[in-house]
Amino acid sequence: MSRSARVIWDDALTSYNFGPSHPLAPVRVELTMALARSLGVLDKVEMAGCASASDDELSMVHDRGYIESVKRVSVSGLPDLGCGLGTPDNPAFAGVHEASALIAGASLAAARSIWEGTAEHAVNIAGGLHHAMRAVASGFCVYNDPALAIAWLLAQGAGRIAYVDVDVHHGDGVQAMFYDDPRVLTISLHESPRTLFPGTGFPDETGADGTAVNVALPAGCGDAGWLRAFHAVVPPLLHEFRPDILVTQHGCDSHALDPLANLMLSVDGQRAAYAALHRLAHETAGGRWIATGGGGYELVQVVPRAWTHLIAELAGHPIDPATPTSEEWRRFVRERTGETPPLTMTDGRNPEFHHLSGGYDPADPIDRAVMATRNAVFPLHGLDPIP
């Protein structure tokens, strides 16, 4: 399906490191790249480097004063609670500005690849830091790289950008930055804010002309329910909105093994979502697709397999779920982490689901969540909320 796919990568992207006890461990990205390389996935894409985002570029989405505060923390390594650095979620560390600016620059490189037409799809798996706000770090995120990519594209002349966020946590930072901008459609599917950080992302947060869309799913939702919700909301809105470019965030913390959340997806269900978004990029955005990583805190069993599937899907060469992981990679996992690696690229699940068009069950909490979203935003897009 892809004409060209580009992976933005620099080994220094692993320098975004809040310390050995922090859940956002850079080894997850290191293991992903090693797995993708060992399975030949990286042979099917173009690898490209990146430069750090400049202060002028960062100021497209962040206050200048905030950037200066992060730079001071970067030099001293000391907390500055005024900018959100020095909390348990966002520890201060020396070099934080440089590490964060490089991740932001990687997503800018992906955006530039798509805008200039040098690639049809591009991915920054180290990115997806969607909680960072204009003037404060939040939720493990310092600079909001997806928002920066979107803002840069708008500045180049893009008329409409759609952003779909499948992280288990609400994509609050990206939503906040474009909440009143009808050129940007943000869609976030996440665990209910009643049970999970950041406590936002209710269906009635609808933004400018219904361009903020939130599907708040109940704890315990698995593959079938999640995919039912996705297909009931995302395709109709993307087909109606017709974005120039699709930007997606792929936090894989919706997995059943993730220690920080309560959804129950499998790697197989996540892989199905990636395939659906790939199709939608071609159906609604002329194939122009920018993807990022995001959350994901089961560092060995989940993140490397999920994002290797993402890169393979982006390349147009999906991996058979039954494919074994390589012995070379398993050895690397044991040496690097001391943990037992997964043996195959599947959890052995069949991620089937029933479309909402087959009937709405008011007793089902997933259907109630879906209908709350459809009722809130579909009429604002000229769509019928009744399935």
From TrEMBL:
Pfam families for the chain: Hist_deacetyl
CDD domains (alphabetical): HDAC_AcuC_like
Gene3D superfamilies: Histone deacetylase domain (3.40.800.20)
Xref: InterPro entries: AcuC, HDACs, His_deacetylse_dom, His_deacetylse_dom_sf, Ureohydrolase_dom_sf
Domain (Histone deacetylase): residue spans on this chain: 22-313
One Gene Ontology molecular-function label: histone deacetylase activity
Xref: SUPFAM superfamilies: Arginase/deacetylase
Annotated keywords: Acetoin catabolism
Pathway: Ketone degradation; acetoin degradation
Signal peptide location: none
Keyword match Glycosyltransferase: no
GO BP terms, alphabetized: acetoin catabolic process; epigenetic regulation of gene expression
Keyword RNA-binding in annotation: no
PANTHER family: HISTONE DEACETYLASE HDAC1, HISTONE DEACETYLASE HDAC1-RELATED
Family listed: Belongs to the histone deacetylase family.
Name assigned to this protein: Acetoin utilization protein AcuC
The organism of origin for this protein: Nonomuraea polychroma
